[in-house]
Amino acid sequence: GLSAMLARWFATDLPQPSLLPLIGGFACSIIAMAGFCLPSVVRAADAPVVRVLRRDLPASQASLKLLLACGLLALTALLVWLTRDLLVAVLLVVAVVAVFGLLSAVSRGLVALASRPSGERWRRLLSGIKRRPGSVTLQIAAFGVGLLALLLLAIVRADVLNTWQRQIPPDAPNFFLVNIQPDEVPSVRDFFIDREIGFRSLFPMVRGRLERINDTPVADMDFAGKRNEWTIRRDFNLSFADEARDDNPIVDGQWWQPETTEQLLSLELDFADELGVEIGDVLHFRVAEALVSGRISNLREVEWESFSPNFFVVGSPATFRDSPASYITSVQVRDDHGGFVRELVSRFPSVTVLEVGSILERVSGIMNRAAAAVQYVFLFTVFAGILVLIAAVLASRRERFREAAILRTLGASRQYLRGTLGREFAVIGLLSGVLAATVAAVIGWIIVEQVMDLSYHFNPWLWLTGVAAGLIGIWTAGMLVTRPVLDQSPVDVLRNQV
Q1: What's the distance, CA 338 to chain centroid?
Q2: Which residue intervals of 396-457 are DSSP H helices?
Q3: Backbone phi, then psi, for 22, in 5-degree steps?
Q4: DSSP letters of 329-395?
Q5: What tens digit of pLDDT does each residue of 69-122 get?
Q6: Distance from the CA of 42 to the CA of which of 76, 148, 370, 492 falls in 20 to 30 A?
Q7: What DSSP assignment string belongs to 308-334?
Q8: Closest C-alpha to 184, from 350, 368, 377, 44
Q9: Pick from 133, 447, 192, 489: nearest CA to 330
Q10: DSSP state, residue 48
């Protein structure tokens, strides 16, 4: 079903299904069961008879530690297999352990609050959590992780995309013109001036490949894992200019004097860090059949979000004097210039026009569809969280039957018991929603502030949605599962206990 939906959304033919996903899913389930279930099954053979007959005796702590260790080992093995990256797998396991540790700490804090001598109503509200801290921690973690995944995709993803779109200047160019030949530059400039279409400048562009850094061939250097490895290894765009640009501030070194005869280079700051070079180093580029060299004169920051033509490497005119070049520029065309593309292409057939606005809308649409498709997948995560919640409630149902029978024998009504259970599940749902929303907000902040280097705005709907989903989901599932507790006769329960 998901494959059919994706094919329809993305208008593409997907490969025919095979048995490999079935085998992979079967292997995943076997590894998971081996890590999380097999230790308990093996441990059952050595369980003392007294432990079986008297369920009130504590379990072996060493066995529980072994169970956790096996589970984490299985989880790590699965992640290594699926991600093909040991470091990523270990980081994910650490993150999972950290989340569960946070949830456990919050649950223990609630138990401590419930044990305080003051606040009878507050103690009654948290009485169920006080009696079952381990089960409550599992319930909060199970549902919280699934809810976290959905919040990240449904709200944080949209916030990140909106934040990025807000960074685009209102006067940002919406058309790029490439492959302008040198002899066409004056005519293209006049074309824009006559039609009152604003443009920054026409920038020369030279295609080249980095061959050596100082005396070391690039082929002998290790750039594995570098962000710009694809640029370092392939042909990329170079440029040259007499004067520095206002939107490319110099952060180290000095720009060259106009009409200098020296072969000098200006590098984008992050790109220089990726290369591991500094001012004074010499870079050698293969341009066409010639080897062009230049000494690094300065480092600059580039405003990539300006949607103007930018380059990792800019040289002095003397550096690329004899290199073949074409020109590139960007313009903002108003709605009343809708026919300019047709007229431009008719006058300059060799010029390639790229409409950035349409590309951005297309990319945004693909991202939204992809996120929606992934949301359907993560719905299974929420369902899995609900199943774990139900399993945790069922595991404590024997104890709940006994508690309900004793309370009803002492005069408690069904309404009182229903209210007690409802408050317990409401608090668990509230905690799950708040924690999931908080972690999702922190992840969104990290992505926007630390990775994208933008300004992140926290969305209050994130917490409202998380709390509402947690309250409704956990309260509904918990009340449905514990309904037999309210319907069971106290006499039958007490007789069975005896």
Answers
A1: 38
A2: 397-409, 414-445
A3: -65, -45
A4: EEE---GGGTTHHHHHHHH-TT-EEEEHHHHHHHHHHHHHHHHHHHHHHHHHHHHHHHHHHHHHHHH
A5: 888 888 888 888 888 888 888 888 888 788 777 766 776 676 566 556 555 656
A6: 76
A7: S---SEEE-TTTTTTS--EEEEEE---
A8: 350
A9: 192
A10: -
Strand 175-180 to 352-355 pairing:
antiparallel
Q: Are 278 and 296 in contact (CB under 8 A)?
A: yes
199: DSSP letter = B
CA 228-234-236 angle, 5° bins = 80
User: What is the token pair recorded at 211?
Assistant: 């061959």
Q: How far is CA 182 from the centre of its chain?
A: 44
Cβ contact 330:307 at 8 Å: yes
User: What residues are paired with 310 via a beta bridge?
Assistant: none
Provide the Cα torsion 155, 159, 162, 167; round to 10°.
Answer: -170
For the entire predicted model, the pTM comes to 0.60
One-letter amino acid identity for 135? S
Beta strands in 53-145 (DSSP E): none
The answer to whether the beta carbons of residues 420 and 128 sit under 8 Å apart is yes
Integer Cα distance of 73 and 311 in angstroms: 46
| DSSP H or E segment with residue 112 | helix 86-114
Residue 446: half-sphere exposure toward Cβ, Cα within 13 Å: 7
Distance CA 491, CA 401 (A): 11
Among 349, 357, 295, CA closest to 331 = 357
Residue-level length of the chain: 498
Q: Parallel, antiparallel, or unpaired for β 264-268 and 290-300?
A: parallel
Burial class (CB in 10 A: 0-12, 13-18, 19+), 61: exposed
The whole-angstrom separation of Cα 92 and Cα 76 is 8
Task: Write the pLDDT tens digit of every residue in 14-47.
Answer: 666 677 778 888 888 888 888 888 877 777 777 7
Residue 139 identity: Q
